[in-house]
Recover the amino acids of this structure.
């Protein structure tokens, strides 16, 4: 009967631990990136029964390891570009202040005042790969502004009226300092004897450049379809400009109103950072006020082969039990999955399953308690018999 009490106590301890696992799961039902766990039970050792009959009697319940369920949770929209979710097996790689690597599925990140991408909860650095494939901190420290790029080529499209002198205005040229200059191009058709068009470039009323343009049967002559000239912005060095008429430009007589217009130009002014996000491959994409985008480091992801290679560390973090069993890589490659910006992965806790397990655990605990009570009553009865 004393052995029965001991067996009942192992049940109380085991189901108490099981209840704790269920409680931890249910309380973290809204924790981003949380992975539910379950407690493993097994029977304890056995020994021969009294009297040497050869029968075996068990010694109760044994509590084994806790296993993590890494089934992917639902991905939910947040509207924050730096909230990231992995659709796949990959886990974000973090490095704490002591240099130790951790992993998480809760991609709630922010850029700190130093321009480094950090985990919002503990400020550990989010790690990525640079262009050389080295593991580095993801930083925008030198990318908060986008420098100006001077215009070198301007392309044109549509028809140049062949019947009269035409002037095209609002030709914006960006200089090396990011300044904007509004130029105009005056096109004078050839005389009665034919020949090239004469082109004069004006900045205000000042002539700043000249060139010639040749058409054959209404189409640009490839040998004279580009005008290359040197522009001298005030206070700056010489800037070589190419005005390209070789594609999508014609010259036919029309109503006297030219349709010729600038199509593209490759210069832009300096810009400031307006948006930071990540694409599906985990590449940092920076957008600037001048319309330019720049790509930075790629997020470093880790993945494990079996659940035995990972252990929960708290704070939505996981640690590797064996670093050699982990694989490192980037999104878009194999089982690592893809990145979704503006989303987070919520807990994978199945509340209905937890409530079902709660009922079973409660009944197991009650049954173990009843075993102890029954064994105690039997002992009391035995002592009473001895007392008589």
């Amino acid at each position: 009967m004393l052995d029965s009490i001991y067996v009942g106590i192992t049940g109380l301890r085991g189901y108490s631990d099981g209840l704790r696992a269920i409680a931890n799961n249910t309380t973290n039902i809204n924790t981003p990136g949380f992975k539910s766990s379950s407690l493993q039970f097994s029977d304890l050792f056995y020994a021969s029964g009294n009297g040497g009959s050869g029968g075996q009697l068990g010694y109760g319940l044994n509590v084994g390891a806790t296993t993590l369920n890494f089934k992917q949770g639902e991905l939910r929209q947040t509207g924050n570009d730096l909230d990231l979710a992995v659709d796949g097996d990959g886990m974000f790689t973090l490095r704490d202040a002591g240099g130790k690597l951790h992993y998480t599925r809760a991609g709630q990140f922010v850029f700190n005042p130093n321009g480094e991408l950090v985990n919002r909860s503990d400020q550990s650095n989010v790690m990525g790969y640079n262009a050389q494939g080295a593991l580095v901190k993801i930083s925008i420290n030198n990318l908060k502004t986008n420098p100006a790029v001077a215009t070198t080529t301007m392309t044109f499209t549509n028809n140049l009226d062949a019947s009269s002198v035409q002037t095209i205005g609002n030709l914006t040229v960006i200089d090396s300092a990011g300044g904007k200059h509004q130029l105009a191009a005056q096109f004078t058709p050839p005389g009665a004897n034919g020949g090239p068009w004469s082109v004069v470039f004006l900045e205000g009323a000042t002539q700043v450049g000249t060139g010639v343009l040749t058409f054959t049967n209404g189409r640009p002559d490839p040998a004279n379809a580009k005008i290359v000239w040197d522009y001298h912005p005030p206070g700056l060095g010489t800037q070589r400009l190419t005005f390209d008429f070789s594609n999508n430009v014609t010259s036919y007589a029309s109503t006297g109103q030219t349709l010729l217009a600038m199509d593209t130009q490759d210069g832009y002014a300096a810009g400031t950072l307006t948006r930071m996000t990540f694409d599906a491959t985990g590449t940092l994409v920076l957008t600037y006020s001048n319309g330019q985008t720049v790509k930075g480091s790629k997020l470093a992801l880790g993945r494990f082969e079996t659940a035995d290679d990972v252990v929960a560390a708290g704070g939505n973090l996981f640690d590797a039990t064996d670093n050699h069993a982990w694989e490192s890589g980037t999104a878009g490659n194999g089982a690592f999955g893809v990145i979704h910006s503006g989303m987070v992965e919520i807990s994978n806790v199945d509340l209905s399953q937890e409530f079902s397990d709660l009922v079973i655990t409660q009944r197991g605990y009650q049954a173990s308690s009843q075993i102890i009570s029954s064994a105690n009553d039997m002992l009391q009865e035995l002592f009473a018999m001895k007392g008589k």
Observations:
- The CA atoms of residues 376 and 382 lie 10 Å apart.
- The radius of gyration is 38 Å.
- The chain has a mean pLDDT of 91.
